[in-house]
Design a protein that fits this description.
406 residues, alpha/beta, five-stranded parallel β-sheet, 23 strands, globular
Length: 406
C-alpha cells in the first residue's frame, strides 16, 4: 500500500472515529489536529502515544469501551475480555480473524490442512481469531482449546493433523505425549507446520532444534488482543516480522513517544487501518527494532521482541533491554546468564555487566569477548565486566537492574 493510499485510508477511518468515538475526538483536540491533517507520518507523530494502562482506566470511566468504539452496537459480533480487564469488540466486517488469515496464507496453509488449535477460546480473542483466520484460507480446524494434553495428542494422530497452533512449551508436551504413546516421530505423525508462541532467550535456536527433531517447519506472528495480527513471518528465517498492510507501525522512544531512527530499539506503536475500533498511536509496551522501512517513514519489518518497556533501564540516554543481555549470553560460548546493573556514583552513569559462567567456560576468552559484544548489542560501553557465581545470578534474576538512585 502506497503512502498516499495508506494515509487516505487513515484519514477516512479517523474522520468517522472523530464523529463517533469521543476518546478519539479528545485525542485530536488535545493535539490541535483534525483527521484531515494526517497526510504524512510526521503529522501522525504529532499525536501522543496512547498507553494500554490508559485504556483500562478509560473503560472503567466509560464502560464498556472507554469511548473508542466507532461503530454501531449491531456491528459487534463478539466482545472479548482480556486481562486488565480490557473489553475488545470484534466487528462484523472482520473476515479473517483480524489478520490471522494473511499470516496463515503466508505460511502456506490452505485447503487440505487439518489444524489443531490449542489456544484458548474462553473470553480472550486468541482461539477464535486463529480459528477464523484458518477457516478463511480453507483449512479444517480442530478447536481443541487449552489443556488435556493426552487427548489432544491422540487427536493429532487419529485425525491426521498437519499443523499445530500452540505455545512452544505445549507443542513439546504434545510431541512427547505422542512418543509416549509408542509413535516414532517424525514418521509417526503428519504434522508438517506449527505456529508457535514466542519466547525470549534463544527462541530461534529452539525452533530450529524442534524443526530438526520433529520434521516440521515453524512460523510465528506478532499479535496483541487489541489489534489481532500486527506483523507476521513471511519467508525470512531471521525471526523478523513483516508489518500487516492494515497496520501502521512506528518504533518510538518509550518516554517521549518520538519516532526513533532505523535500527534503534524502542516501543512498538501501532495505528490501525481498519474501522470500528480505530486505535491510533497505541503503545503496545513491547520493544523491538525496525529492520526495514517504507518510503513514507513507517516501519515495514520489525525484529524479534526485546522485552517490555517497563523492563528497560536508561543509561546515558540509551535504554538497555533484557533481550540484549540474553543475546550476550547466547553469542559468547561459556556464559550461563548475564545481567547489567546501572549505577550513578558521581555525575556519570556507570554500567556493570555481571556474568555467570558454565562449568567448561574459558574465562579469559569470555572476558575478552564480552565488552565488544555488549557494545555492539546496546551501543553502550560497559565500565566493568564481572564474573560472579551461579548462585548470584539465579534463573529468576532480572536482566537489567536500575540502581541509579541507590
Amino acid at each position: 500500500m502506497s503512502q498516499e493510499t495508506r494515509f487516505t485510508v487513515l484519514q477516512q477511518i479517523q474522520r468517522a472515529a472523530h464523529q463517533l468515538a469521543p476518546a478519539i475526538r479528545e485525542m485530536f483536540d488535545r493535539a490541535g489536529l483534525a483527521p484531515a491533517d494526517l497526510k504524512t507520518v510526521d503529522d501522525l507523530s504529532r499525536l501522543p502515544v496512547f498507553k494500554k494502562e490508559s485504556l483500562v482506566e478509560l473503560q472503567r470511566q466509560r464502560p464498556p469501551f472507554g469511548g473508542f468504539l466507532a461503530a454501531k452496537d449491531e456491528e459487534i459480533v463478539r466482545i472479548f475480555v482480556s486481562p486488565g480487564p480490557i473489553n475488545e469488540p470484534q466487528l462484523r466486517h472482520d473476515r479473517d480473524g483480524c489478520g490471522f488469515g494473511t499470516a496463515f496464507a503466508a505460511a502456506g496453509l490452505g485447503p487440505g490442512d487439518r489444524v489443531l488449535n490449542t489456544w484458548s477460546y474462553h473470553l480472550v480473542p486468541a482461539g477464535l481469531l486463529l480459528d477464523e483466520g484458518l477457516r478463511s484460507v480453507g483449512a479444517t480446524v480442530i478447536p481443541a482449546g487449552t489443556g488435556g494434553s493426552e487427548l489432544q495428542a491422540k487427536l493429532v494422530t487419529d485425525l491426521g493433523v498437519t499443523c499445530i497452533c500452540a505455545s512452544t512449551a505445549f507443542f513439546i508436551t504434545l510431541a512427547e505425549a505422542i512418543e509416549a504413546m509408542g509413535h516414532s516421530l517424525p514418521g509417526g505423525w503428519k504434522v508438517r507446520t506449527a505456529l508457535l508462541g514466542g519466547e525470549l532467550g534463544d527462541w530461534l535456536g529452539k525452533r530450529r532444534r524442534l524443526e530438526a527433531r520433529y520434521g516440521v517447519r515453524t512460523f510465528a506472528v506478532y499479535a496483541t488482543a487489541d489489534f489481532g495480527v500486527i506483523a507476521f513471518e513471511n519467508g525470512a528465517q531471521d525471526g523478523g516480522y513483516e508489518v500487516h498492510q492494515d497496520r501502521i507501525v512506528q518504533i518510538c522512544d518509550p518516554t517521549t513517544g518520538a519516532p526513533l531512527p532505523h535500527g534503534e530499539p524502542g516501543e512498538i506503536v501501532v495505528t490501525t487501518l481498519t474501522p470500528g475500533w480505530p486505535l491510533i498511536r497505541f503503545g503496545t509496551g513491547d520493544v523491538a527494532v525496525a529492520t526495514a522501512m517504507n518510503a513514507d517513514g513507517t516501519v515495514r519489518r520489525i525484529g524479534m521482541l526485546q522485552g517490555r518497556v517497563g523492563q528497560a533501564v536508561k543509561a546515558r540516554e540509551i535504554f538497555i533491554y533484557p533481550r540484549q543481555l540474553e543475546d550476550l549470553a547466547i553469542a559468547i560460548p561459556g556464559i550461563g546468564r548475564a545481567q547489567a546493573i546501572v549505577t550513578r556514583p558521581q555525575q556519570r552513569e556507570e554500567i556493570t555487566v555481571r556474568l555467570s559462567l558454565l562449568p567448561d567456560a574459558d574465562r579469559d576468552a569470555v572476558l575478552a569477548a564480552a565488552p565488544a559484544r555488549f557494545n555492539a548489542l546496546s551501543r553502550l560501553k560497559a565500565d566493568r565486566i564481572e564474573v560472579v557465581g551461579t548462585d548470584e545470578l539465579p534463573a529468576d534474576a532480572p536482566f537489567v537492574v536500575d540502581r541509579k538512585d541507590a
